[in-house]
Design a protein that fits this description.
heterodimer, A: mainly beta, six-stranded mixed β-sheet, five-stranded antiparallel β-sheet, B: mainly beta, seven-stranded mixed β-sheet
């Protein structure tokens, strides 16, 4: 059964710092990996979707990489801002036929200190 | 952009009540999902549906049922609410796994 781990569970950084969030998964047979952001008490907002054939995706100050063979993805946030404070979750979709269910990590809670 | 709308942001219900949580998506997605999210446990899949009138159990279906009479609407039903069903409930939809998931804004349910 796929397991997704995000370490650390919480991270606090000063404003302006570049940072990396980590996501690891146990089964490399994935279709894609999706990074989400969740603000307190809110739903999940999709940030980046990386297909299994891709190495990275970029959106503004965000860059996500994928190393399927090693079971790892990273989310790089450049020049962090207080508005980036949120919980970041990664989720993987399996490569098996017919199954659409995502497996989620438990998230990294990011605090960016002004 | 796809929009997934959950009808209530906050709900307070009494133990034993029948509770309906509604989710509507506006992009003709075939796949819809209900999750609950609890501190320390993360997101857990309750039920999902690949098509109208079709449903599949997720990891924690006990105490829940679902209804999908129309493609755009997926309802989660708590037949007899209990305090251990107090949680954040999240609905999601997807056209296919290659396009990823879109989530609604969540319903915070409190059962007293």
């Amino acid at each position: 059964k796929q397991e997704v781990t995000q370490i650390p569970a919480a991270l606090s950084v000063p404003e302006g710092e570049n940072l990396v969030l980590n996501c690891s998964f146990t089964d490399s047979a994935i279709y894609n990996l999706q990074w989400f952001r969740q603000d307190p008490g809110k739903g999940l907002t999709s940030l980046l979707l990386i297909q299994s054939s891709q190495r990275e995706q970029t959106s503004g100050r965000l860059n996500a990489s994928l190393d399927k063979s090693s079971g790892r993805s990273t989310l790089y946030i450049a020049a962090s801002q207080p508005g980036d404070s949120a919980t970041y979750l990664c989720a993987v979709a399996p490569a098996g036929a017919g199954s659409y269910q995502l497996t989620f990590g438990k998230g990294t809670k990011l605090s960016v200190i002004p | 952009d796809v929009k997934v709308t959950q009808s209530s942001r906050y709900l307070v219900k009494r133990t034993g009540e029948k509770v309906f949580l509604e989710c509507v998506q506006d992009m003709d997605h075939e796949n819809m999902f209900w999750y609950r999210q609890d501190p320390g446990l993360g997101l857990r899949l309750i039920y999902f549906s690949y098509d109208v009138k079709m449903k599949e159990k997720g990891d924690i279906p006990e105490g829940y049922s679902v209804s999908r009479e129309k493609k755009e609407r997926f309802s989660l039903i708590l037949e007899s609410a209990s305090t251990n069903q107090t949680s954040m409930y999240l609905c999601a939809s997807s056209i296919n796994r290659g396009r990823g998931y879109t989530f609604g804004s969540g319903t915070r349910l409190t059962v007293v």
